[in-house]
Amino acid sequence: MALTVDEQLLRGMARDAAIYALTRPVAIVMWIALVAAFVVSIVNLTAAGGAQGLAGLLPVASIALMVYAVVMTVTGARRAVRAATPPGSAVWLRLDDTALHVGAGSRSSDISYSTFQSVRAGRHAVLFKLRGASAITAVPRALLSDDDIVTLRSRIG
Fold first, then answer.
1. pLDDT band at residue 52, thresholds of 50, 70 and 90?
2. Can you give the pTM of this predicted structure?
3. Do 42 and 50 contact (CB within 8 A), yes or no?
4. How confident is the model at residue 20 (pLDDT cuts 50, 70, 90)?
5. Is 70 exceeded by the pLDDT of residue 49?
6. With b meaning 16 or more CB within 10 Å and e meaning fewer, what string describes 133-148?
7. Is residue 136 classed as helix, strand or coil in its secondary structure?
8. FRET pair for 16, CA 20 to 30 Å: which of 5, 64, 122, 141?
9. How many other CB atoms are found less than 10 A from the CB of residue 115?
């Protein structure tokens, strides 16, 4: 089965990739640290009786870092998905016993299941985390049935 990539699909796949990136364990640690910094800075300001010098900027800086992290993650996900599957390209996918075969436009890859650490199905994309790296591979969710995803999960990990 092949699917032609359009702008709506790209946005959905990028959204799924960004959500994955913002909710993976390393990101959760970052969010906890940023929220803790925000709370500590508010408590310190309250205890000191109001903004005092640069300490008054710490809550704003914490929120700015949170917004920056979200914006940069979404932007990076959009750029990566668009580069891998440009609009108008035909994307296809085939499963066999030992490998995932995927193609986009004139490019194709045969990737052994052992290359992947995990698989996560989003609404618009299925995300494959590469073993030993922070990189992911995204393919359109419409190319895989629920049974295909169950099969992938049994072969990966």
1. low
2. 0.82
3. no
4. very high
5. no
6. eeebbbbbbebbeeee
7. strand
8. 64
9. 16
